[in-house]
Specification:
Blueprint: H1 4-7, H2 13-16, H3 21-37, E1 45-47, E2 53-55, E3 63-64, H4 65-77, H5 81-95, E4 110-111, H6 124-141
Antiparallel strand pairs: 1-2, 3-4
Helix pairs in contact: 4-5, 4-6
């Protein structure tokens, strides 16, 4: 038996449970809307005054590379270029470490929602997903600035 990589056929567990494609598409659309644009007490995404955006870690009320990179992955998979660019611009402005001696070129794994760094070190999961999201974005939208 060959896996999905070889067959290009991916399981859809919702469909296997009896949901129609229309119901599945609506559920995904509703979830994305809630996460990005729902009521303030339900969403994770916040746009800043300078047209950037961040995903808040609601358990710690801060911004982490893990959440930002996951947000970028959601954006590229859902073809949300504007939001992708807003998140990536926030990451580059506030999380990128260009002055750290040991971690220069990496991203601070945690910042306050105003962009103040909480840490001077990276987290490998966030760094990995940034790279993957950027590869996916390049394939979907091309290479911008």
């Amino acid at each position: 038996m060959k896996g999905a990589f070889y067959t290009k056929e991916y399981r859809n567990l919702f469909a296997e449970c009896g949901y129609s494609q229309e119901e599945i598409d609506q559920k995904v659309k509703d979830a994305i809307h809630t996460v990005f644009y729902g009521p303030e007490d339900e969403r994770f995404y916040f746009v800043t005054e300078d047209d950037m955006g961040y995903f808040e870690d609601t358990g710690n009320h801060d911004v982490r590379t893990e959440g930002m990179s996951y947000a970028m992955m959601m954006c590229v998979q859902m073809n949300m270029k504007k939001e992708f660019d807003q998140v990536w611009n926030w990451v580059k402005k506030y999380m990128y470490m260009d002055e750290s001696f040991y971690n220069k070129g990496y991203f601070a794994w945690s910042c306050q929602t105003d962009g103040t760094k909480n840490a001077d070190g990276p987290a490998p999961d966030g760094e990995d997903f940034f790279a993957m999201a950027l590869f996916f974005a390049s394939h979907r939208w091309g290479d911008g600035e």
